[in-house]
Design goal:
By secondary structure, the protein is of the alpha/beta class. Helix content is about 30%, strand content about 20%.
Length: about 280
């Protein structure tokens, strides 16, 4: 049963060979919206049901071996169609993201994510500021999988790549990777953040590279770049507010419904209060 005063909200994702992140995704969004409101496609009939699946709705789909770009398009069309079905079934809001991405509301607001999304006006979609959390090789140790991420990682690259319109208030079609909504502008909320943890640990990336085809291996190596940028950064306290303002104003000429930052590689220190999210 949904909490009093909140809208009916679903969270959706699709994953393959990613049980580590998927278990955390279920734990987080299950606490926010209720496990029964989570909808997960597993990419492959051979995929293992996550240990923390609980009451989440999980469906295995036949796997098709594809290059990254083509595979991304196939998956996002499936997830956009799933969102349409959920709206038709009575959901008010659908949150769609990868299983290593966590949408949070600033703890200073003192509202749950469900309460906040229920209260804020959402024209069609809503984005949080993208924080690509990475490992500082000079000061941080290998990830302890039993501990929260944010108890172990202090820095993030403020990345337009993860300032995604992951929140929908009505049926629409996402672009590949949830990076845009076709035919609609994006709106960056001042209290929302999308934390991406694909670069949270260098050894984890290396292990995954050995498990993927060449195009996916190239994709995973890009995650290691975040670790390199964070490790090398001389300034690690760039203001999040300034990054949000830039991303609201600037657009890449080739894609006007996405944010831009003039190629700036700004690293910020993740506020200690974000640890309250438990991620």
């Amino acid at each position: 049963m949904k909490p009093h005063g909140t809208k009916r909200i679903a969270a959706i994702t699709m994953a393959r060979n990613d049980e580590f992140f998927l278990n955390r995704w279920i734990s987080y969004y299950g606490a926010q919206f209720g496990e029964e409101n989570l909808y997960i496609y597993l990419d492959g009939l051979d995929q293992k049901i996550p240990a923390r699946a609980g009451h989440a709705n999980i469906k295995k789909m036949p796997h098709r071996e594809q290059a990254v770009q083509k595979g991304d398009k196939t998956r996002i069309l499936m997830l956009s169609e799933l969102a349409r079905k959920l709206f038709a079934d009575g959901y008010d809001i659908v949150v769609g993201c990868d299983c290593d991405e966590f949408l949070i509301v600033d703890p200073d607001v003192n509202m749950t994510l469900a309460e906040y999304l229920s209260a804020v006006h959402i024209k069609t979609s809503l984005s949080g500021l993208g924080l690509d959390v990475g490992m500082d090789l000079k000061t941080e140790s290998a990830l302890d999988p039993t501990m929260p991420f944010l108890a172990q990682r202090r820095y993030a690259l403020m990345s337009t790549r993860y300032t995604k319109p992951v929140v929908l208030s009505r049926p629409a079609t996402w672009g590949s990777g949830f990076h845009s909504v076709k035919g609609h502008n994006f709106h960056i909320d001042g209290n929302l953040y999308l934390l991406h943890f694909g670069g949270v640990d260098l050894d984890m990336i290396k292990n995954k590279i050995g498990d993927r085809n060449p195009s996916w291996a190239r994709h995973l190596r890009k995650r290691a770049r975040t670790i390199d940028i964070i490790t090398r950064a001389k300034l690690k306290n760039m203001p999040m507010r300034a990054a949000r303002i830039l991303q609201r104003i600037l657009r890449p000429i080739y894609d006007l419904n996405k944010p831009a930052m003039l190629g700036l590689k700004w690293v910020t220190t993740i506020p200690m209060r974000f640890e309250k999210t438990g991620i």
